[in-house]
């Protein structure tokens, strides 16, 4: 038991140090994995490194590299302009469009990180260009992906439903699906209101530019008059004002090729189930070969500090799993005499572990721990508990230590990285603490 308590305490100490000092938590986590794994777990270096998340590392490198290429050749800016035109200049609609697309992708079978990896860079590029709170935009994408994650044909839904069916427990596939969508939708609405969405709703729609001659665009005079008459700055910021003056030029051949690459990324990863890290890196390299001079800086734009942070913490969590700390906590909770209290604590454990590790692994390992007391005819509703457990274990993927949160952190533009990381960490901690209690009360107690 002592080694489990020490390993958890070391993880907490890392949080404190990384919060107080501008030290990369990933570096601390690698040192912690070495010391704890060697001194407490008697693990050789090879076993410690077995917890290194190579797939996550490749995903983060490949995605950030590919979208650095797309940013450098102007494709992201071009896509942003098309998005503005598609919604008639209503900037406030864009966060919800991103939420909806991410939800649709996961509901039809996309892995949540794959959907976020595709949508987040475009959404955050849009946020940077039109002065939208990047935290709101990134969180809308993640909550959208998690909202659609428990449809009967989704990855999370399939895993959860198979475990429940195998255990012989009552099964209601749509109850879990609608619980996830409803909770994430409500959270997204709250984020939209709290993080600047009302300002976007009050802002006038961006007018479409009208051609004043070959290659020339004019601003809609009424809009200019409204701003001048009001005697105020553009409510969407100077970047939006500048964007209005840009001519609506068609994309270049290289930009069309880049869009084709992004479409190929979606098709190959979502339909053919190929690894998103390898695919994104391959497409990025092919685009770089077309214009090597233009893209030579792309590799330096990969978010190396954020990648170091994520893979370091994941490696430490891998050491904790090998030492049996995660299983120890889960079994200790499940052994409680009160089924209601056991259900609450299992939701907490699922949320905390999932904030650092794979939500899929959490669902597969913690739900079976609840089977004994659910089968004993306790007052705990199996359907309600499964819904609470499922949502608790996935809604926390906004944490910067999870793949989804890491993708948001890596693709945020025009922000202080350390400050943005802290905001994500605070929000992730808040969700981890509050969500299990609210979900337990809503789906288990009530």
Automatic annotation (TrEMBL):
InterPro entries: Cit_transptr-like_dom (IPR004680), CitT-rel (IPR030676), MatC_N (IPR009827). Keywords: Membrane, Transmembrane, Transmembrane helix, Transport. One of its GO terms (cellular component) is membrane. The chain crosses the membrane at residues 12-36, 48-70, 91-124, 136-156, 177-198, 307-330, 342-371, 383-412, 424-443. Coiled coil: none annotated. The keyword Transmembrane applies. The keyword Chaperone does not apply. Residues 1-149 form the Dicarboxylate carrier MatC N-terminal domain. It is found in: Membrane. Residues 270-443 form the Citrate transporter-like domain. Its main location: membrane. It is a multi-pass membrane protein. GO terms for biological process: transmembrane transport. This is Dicarboxylate carrier MatC N-terminal domain-containing protein.
């Amino acid at each position: 038991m002592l080694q489990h308590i020490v390993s958890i305490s070391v993880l907490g100490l890392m949080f404190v140090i990384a919060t107080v000092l501008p030290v990369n938590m990933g570096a601390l986590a690698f040192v912690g994995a070495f010391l704890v794994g060697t001194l407490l777990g008697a693990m050789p270096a090879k076993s410690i490194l077995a917890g290194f998340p190579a797939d996550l590392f490749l995903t983060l490198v490949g995605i950030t590299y590919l979208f650095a290429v797309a940013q450098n050749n102007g494709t992201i800016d071009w896509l942003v302009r098309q998005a503005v035109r598609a919604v008639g200049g209503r900037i406030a609609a864009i966060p919800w469009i991103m939420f909806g697309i991410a939800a649709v992708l996961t509901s039809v079978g996309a892995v949540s990180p794959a959907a976020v990896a595709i949508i987040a860079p475009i959404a955050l590029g849009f946020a940077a260009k039109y002065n939208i709170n990047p935290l709101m935009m990134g969180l809308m994408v993640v909550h959208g992906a998690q909202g659609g994650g428990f449809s009967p044909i989704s990855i999370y839904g399939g895993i959860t439903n198979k475990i429940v069916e195998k255990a012989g427990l009552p099964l209601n596939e749509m109850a879990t699906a609608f619980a996830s969508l409803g909770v994430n939708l409500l959270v997204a609405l709250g984020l939209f209101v709290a993080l600047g969405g009302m300002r976007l709703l009050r802002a006038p729609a961006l007018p479409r530019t009208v051609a004043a001659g070959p290659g020339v665009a004019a601003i809609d005079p009424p809009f200019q008059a409204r701003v001048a008459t009001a005697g105020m700055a553009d409510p969407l910021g100077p970047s939006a004002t500048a964007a209005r003056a840009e001519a609506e030029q068609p994309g270049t051949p290289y930009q069309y090729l880049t869009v084709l690459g992004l479409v190929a990324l979606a098709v190959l990863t979502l339909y053919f189930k190929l690894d998103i890290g390898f695919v994104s890196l391959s497409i990025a390299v092919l685009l770089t070969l077309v214009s090597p001079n233009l893209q030579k800086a792309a590799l330096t734009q990969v978010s190396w500090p954020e990648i170091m942070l994520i893979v370091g913490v994941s490696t430490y969590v891998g050491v904790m799993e090998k030492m049996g700390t995660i299983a120890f906590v889960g079994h200790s909770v499940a052994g409680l005499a009160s089924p209601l209290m056991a259900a609450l604590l299992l939701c907490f454990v699922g949320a905390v572990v999932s904030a650092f590790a794979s939500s899929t692994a959490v669902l597969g390992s913690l739900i079976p721990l609840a089977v004994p007391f659910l089968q004993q005819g306790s007052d705990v509703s199996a359907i309600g508990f499964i819904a609470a457990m499922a949502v608790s274990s996935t809604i926390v993927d906004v944490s910067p230590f999870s793949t989804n949160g890491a993708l948001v952190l890596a693709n945020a533009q025009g922000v202080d990285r350390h400050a943005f990381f802290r905001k994500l960490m605070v929000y992730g901690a808040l969700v981890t603490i509050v969500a299990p209690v609210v979900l337990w009360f809503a789906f288990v107690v009530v």
